[in-house]
Amino acid sequence: MERTLLCEIVTPEQVVYRSEARMVVAPTIDGEIGIMPLHAPLVSALKPGEIRVIHSDDKVEWFAISGGYVQVHEDKVIILADQAAASSQIDVERARQALAEARARMDELPPDEEGEIDACVADLNWCEAQLSVAGKKGS
Amino acid sequence: MANLRDIKNRIGSVESTRQITRTMEMVATAKIKKAQERIEAARPYALSMMEVLGNVARYAKGAEHPLLESHEKRQRIVVIAVTSDRGLAGAFNSNILRLAENIIHDETAAGVQVDVIAVGKKAAGYFRYRGIDPIASYRDLSDKPTFTDAKSIASHVIGAYSDEEVDAVYVAFNRFKNVAEQKPEVHQLLPIERRVVDEAAEGSDVRAEYTFEPSPEAVLELLLPTYVETLVFRALMESAASEHGARRTAMKAATDNASEMITTLTRSYNRARQAAITNEIAEIVGGAAALED
Fold first, then answer.
1. How many CB pairs under 8 A join A and B?
2. CATH number, span A1-139
3. Chain B within 8 Å of A121 (Cβ-Cβ)?
4. FRET pair for B99, CA 20 to 30 Å: which of A75, B152, B174, B239?
């Protein structure tokens, strides 16, 4: 049987996803990486974007994440994200609305409110990540 | 007799109060369970994060980070007081407020300025009443705190600490010991104690040779604020579970007291009724005796 790895996507509020997979693709700060079984131990920071989980039967699942970390150790991939959502569970209408609201908030923020701006940028990125993943369905 | 009707009315009103407290008790019981489940659901993230932190710390030994450095001076500290939005929960809120008040008293005596972040309407109201203006107030999150809430509270103090505007940050909250017991506690949030990082590093698997991207130091720098956020999140969730626990205990006591009161009132009602009947009989007998003569 083909060797697989265990993929876990965890947010502070719950375990979002847990399954065996053939390959996991994650958006690190330096670019996208694909993780396959027997990967060397790795810890990497992730930026907002999409996670692809590719199963042994070539089925693909998409997830949007708001940034976080990935740890790979002994065929176990743990993705720690502030927020994560499967492509099928994303509410496009709500994400669009949140995006518009975040943009409006951004425009009104004074430039010296660094903390607020960071939070706003994080919101924007999260909304965009959701929207880019939302249309994608497992084939 | 007016007295009889009075007692009857009292019984009626105590009964409806008991109805309310009993319902609140049952609602609280259901909510404790949900709040506990949320604490459980948050555990995997916290565990994995400590594991990552341990691995990173092992490679970035002695790395400097503003959140790990304690400041030489101690001029200004922040206390985050986690209370509830609603009352009727016994000593739940007053315990936290007393703790915060003690810190303010002691630190002020030592010449330290203490700022307060109020979580929950009860804390905001209390401090405003005491003439202390909280630097930030959060409400409507005590029932079901989200990580976003925790992040926004944490970012407030992380920024101030890194800029050396604040020299220490504490959080006061009710820890959920079990369904019937809450323990008010104060935890140090910032600076992050080195001990925490060192212990995490010792617990990590030394056989694995990790690669870090972009670098151990860069990951550590991102990870430490996240660590603080999870601590705040944990405090919020513990407090939410404790709130329901405290309310259940308080409402159970209120229900029991109401039942006891109804028993006493019913007894005096019966006694008054008996007295009235005896009185009437005495009058009739007396009247009949007067006629016979």
1. 92
2. 2.60.15.10
3. no
4. B152
